[in-house]
């Protein structure tokens, strides 16, 4: 085998087996989740009409917070990048919403998705969801 073919073949080899997939990482993070984190997140969602799990530098988070601010002042925002337990909170959120990105928006204890999902709703729809 020529040197060029050997180099090409090396690039085409399957990934070593010691790499884990994202789903495995997510499962292990969820399995090791602190009960205190679960309680904190569940209680926060239960006790507030509108909760946004956000990161302060995220443009999608900023857009969602601005959109919600037009409808209500009663929004609790948790900036995960500014909290010591932010990564643990973010690791737990997929068990509630089905996705791990931010923002994650909950209105009356229901996950409505992220920024794109929120912006698909009219302001009247958002106000109705908050009032329900």
UniProtKB/TrEMBL annotation:
The keyword Transferase does not apply. One of its GO terms (molecular function) is glutathione disulfide oxidoreductase activity. It holds the Pfam family Glutaredoxin. GO terms for cellular component: cytoplasm; nucleus. Residues 50-112 form the Glutaredoxin domain. The keyword Transport applies. InterPro entries: GLR_AS, Glutaredoxin, Glutaredoxin_euk/vir, Glutaredoxin_subgr, Thioredoxin-like_sf. GO terms for biological process: cellular response to oxidative stress. Keywords: Disulfide bond, Electron transport, Redox-active center, Transport. NCBIfam families: GRX_euk. This is Glutaredoxin.
């Amino acid at each position: 085998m020529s040197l060029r073919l050997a180099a090409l073949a090396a690039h085409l080899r399957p990934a070593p087996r010691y790499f884990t997939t994202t789903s495995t990482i997510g499962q292990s993070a969820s399995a090791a989740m602190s009960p205190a984190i679960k309680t904190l997140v569940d209680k926060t969602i239960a006790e507030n009409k509108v909760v946004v799990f956000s990161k302060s530098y995220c443009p999608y988070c900023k857009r969602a917070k601005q959109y919600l601010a037009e409808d209500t002042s009663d929004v609790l925002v948790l900036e995960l990048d500014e909290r010591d337990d932010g990564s643990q909170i973010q690791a737990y959120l997929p068990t509630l919403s089905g996705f791990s990105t931010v923002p994650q928006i909950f209105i009356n204890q229901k996950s409505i998705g992220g920024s794109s999902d929120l912006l698909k709703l009219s302001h009247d729809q958002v106000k109705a969801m908050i009032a329900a």
